[in-house]
Every structure is written in C-alpha cells, then in structure tokens.
Amino acid sequence: MIYNILNFEIGVLMYIGGDRDPRNRMVEMLHSNTPQSVKKHVMDMFPEPDSHLRILVATIAYGMGVNCKNVSRVIHFGPSSAVEAYVQESGRCVQQGQQSYAILLYNGITIRAANEAMKLYIKGTSCRVEHSFQEGE
C-alpha cells in the first residue's frame, strides 16, 4: 500500500531519466513475494553508496543479516511486536558513527499486535539514544 501511494504521488519522477524502466526506479518494494529478479536487483543496488535506489519500502523480509552502511532513516509503519524486534529492525540505520533516525508511526489499530513492553515504549516521552558505534567496534 505504501509503495503504491508513493508510485501514484511521485509517478514518472520515481525513475532516473524519466522513463519507466524498472531498473531505473529510485523507490523499490521488497516483501516475501517479491520476484527473485527484483530481490536480486535490490540486494545488489541498495547497499551501494552511488546507487540510484534511494528508498526501499520493505517488510522484515529484507532485514536480517543485511549490511547496508548508507541507511540514515528507518520508518516503521506500525510498531514491532516487541521492543527487542524494534531495536533490531531500527538498527538498520547508519552504523558508522553518523547521526541516523528511526521513526515509528502507529495508530490504535496497529498497536494491538504489540506486547506490553512495546506499548510502554511507544507511550514514552523521550527519544531512545543509542551508543554511536565506530567502524571496527
């Protein structure tokens, strides 16, 4: 749904060069049913610092074990089921000692799947500040 909204709102501007060649999309989607050719394209392009791929709309199908050093923002549309999962998923942000942001958007419907610890975390009034890891740590 999020990808479709972006595609509708941005239209032809979503592509490098203005043509609708799928290999030139700046926004891509990845989920468990994504075709293998698209998964390979995303896995090859997204980690590259000079890639045309700028936004990846993904489920947790993308996350585990993928090392993308140039991610500066992670936006969750709905909370994770547990704080531990949220920390792991938002940990995709830059791990090079640079500032990064993890944003959590939710409503009453999406919070229902969260456990009690996650609900308490969401209702907190302060930002979570993590140690800034330097390369090699």
What is this structure's SSE topology?
Layout: H1 2-10, E1 27-30, H2 36-45, E2 55-58, E3 73-77, H3 83-90, E4 101-105, H4 116-122
Parallel strand pairs: 1-2, 3-4
| Percentage beta strand | 5-15%
Strand order of the largest sheet: 1-2
* Contiguous helical run count: 4
Which architecture would the CATH scheme give at its second level? Answer: 3-Layer(aba) Sandwich
For this structure, the quaternary state is: single chain
Reading the helices and strands in chain order gives: HEHEEHEH
By secondary-structure content and strand pairing, the structural class works out as alpha/beta
What is the C-level CATH assignment? Alpha Beta
Rounded to the nearest angstrom, the distance between the terminal CA atoms is: 38 Å
Give the proportion of residues in helices.
Answer: 10-25%
Uncertain parts:
131-137
The CATH topology annotation reads as: Rossmann fold
Count the beta strands: 4
**How is the main sheet built?**
2 strands, parallel
Short characterization:
With 137 residues, this protein is an alpha/beta fold. 25% of the residues lie in helices and 13% in strands.
Keywords for this structure?
Rossmann fold; two-stranded parallel sheet; alpha/beta; globular; 25% helix; disordered C terminus; 4 helices; 137 residues
